[in-house]
Amino acid sequence: MAAKSDGAAVVASPGPEGAAGGARGSACGRAEAATAAGGPGVTGAGGSGPRYEMRDCCWVLCALLVFFSDGATDLWLAASYYLQGQRTFFGLTLLFVLLPSLVVQLLSFRWFVYDYTEPAGAPGPAVSTKDSGIVGPSVSTKDSAAAFRTKEGSPELGPLPAPSSASAYRRRCCRLCVWLLQTLVHLLQLGQVWRYLRTMYLGLQSRWRGEQLRRHFYWRMLFESADVSMLRLLETFLRSAPQLVLQLSLLVHRGGRPDLLPALSTSASLVSLAWTLASYQKVLRDSRDDKRPLSYKGAVAQVLWHLFTIAARSLAFALFASVYKLYFGIFIVAHWCVMTFWVIQGETDFCMSKWEEIIYNMVVGIIYIFCWFNVKEGRSRRRMTLYYCIVLLENAALTGFWYSSRNFSTDFHSLILVCVVASSFALGIFFMCVYYCLLHPNGPMLGPQAPGCICPEASEPCGPPADAVTSPPRSLPRTTGAERDGASVGGERAGTPTPPVFQVRPGLPPTPVARTLRTEVPVIRIDLPRKKYPAWDAHFIDRRLRKTILALEYSSPVTPRLQYRSTGTSQELLEYETTV
């Protein structure tokens, strides 16, 4: 089949069932895709595949609770500052709430516009069959009743009737209502709430629908989860992180018994940071078939790990900033520059363009001010150990400078704060060790490691076997007349019988062994190498490729599987027919 989505051409052709592909619907790049109509009994990639469970729905509900508690406490605190006449604190608190929210809502609405805008001159990407006289219908990347009926009812794609004027009018009215609804939602700064609710809806639909539509809804749920996790990660480190440092600095500067409202605001910001980091890592692992999914026990351990390390880091910042405001600003800028340069020299591969990659590295530099964030493929023990050694030294130096300005003999409260910084950091490192030693998806760090690649069909490692012939000869060498006569060839003694190339079997067995028919399933081949973990697969970032994959999935009678261009093995098939 061939499809286009906003200029991205995708070509589809038959692919065998054994091709290595994404078990969770992962692909990379934009280019060639291969698909073939499977016969009866053909299932999607990986058999039944992962299923959306109720605990996934509970996780999303907890994420909504964290989102609302963080925003509500910040707005409540800003209103309290305004009523108390503290206009400076009111302005800073409100600035850290509104500015990041506006940036995230603009990005979310831009994604919606791109996803919902159809190519000019057609209601959706055109899908046809390669090397065939059958031409398929135009398929939209948005769900339609006709596409659902095609997937649930008939195994073939039939021609769709031409839309009438009444149906076209209803379609335009529905599109207008969707645009108005999304505009209102994003103006009310609720774009992420909408995406969370849509994630739950798609996940529940994947549970309730039949097997053929279940996989489709699960793919779309993963797409929506990836979008909202990226948006939340950006917002929390632009809003919750500076808000946390600001409110802690005010609490330390005032001294005495802390007020309830600032304490609630700092607690909500801290939980939001830790939850967003753990949720991001869980969704990232769930989206990749070459990595084992993160369990909820591991996610909770990550939440506690980030919670205590960020708490110690933010409290050290607040203590130092309460006395040395100018030097604190210089320290933050210098730390951000060093961390951004460290990330850039690591040559990350997350985005589709160079400038987007630079912006992404700058955002990661902000994250590194507060906590560890893996951005490079491979073992991260040494890099993480180096980072936390630097953080430990910085926390000790910042807290030591602040404590040196206090009265050692009478200020017992200062000594308690120093102990809180140290104990919080130690607890964070403890939960980090618990995660890596007991709850890591690949197995305990000190025990046997499980393979990172998942092949649901077999227990062997992914890829061709070690003894597989990847480049067999195209044809057999011809036999010369001298060799047939038994002449000396290549130093062999004349008259030595040469074994024939082909031998005729004396007879067939009385009961022929039935051969298993090799079924074929749709395979979407992406002609670019796959991005390595911890990067997202390209179709989670390249929205044109995402729309094309959804269009091909709609047009196929069975759920397709995704396959990347392999960089380590030959692209030739392992089975050949040789003729002489």
From TrEMBL:
Q: How does it sit in the membrane?
A: Multi-pass membrane protein
Question: Which Gene Ontology cellular-component terms appear in the entry?
Answer: plasma membrane
Which UniProt key words apply to this protein?
Cell membrane, Membrane, Transmembrane, Transmembrane helix
Q: Which InterPro entries match?
A: XK-rel (IPR018629), XK-related_scramblase (IPR050895)
Subcellular localization: Cell membrane; Membrane
| Biological-process GO terms, alphabetical | apoptotic process involved in development; engulfment of apoptotic cell; phosphatidylserine exposure on apoptotic cell surface
Residue spans crossing the bilayer: 58-83, 89-109, 326-346, 358-375, 384-403, 415-438
Region annotation Disordered: residue ranges? 465-509
Q: Which family does it belong to?
A: Belongs to the XK family.
Q: Which PANTHER family match?
A: XK-RELATED PROTEIN (PTHR16024), XK-RELATED PROTEIN 7 (PTHR16024:SF7)
Q: What is this protein called?
A: XK-related protein
The organism is Phyllostomus discolor (pale spear-nosed bat)
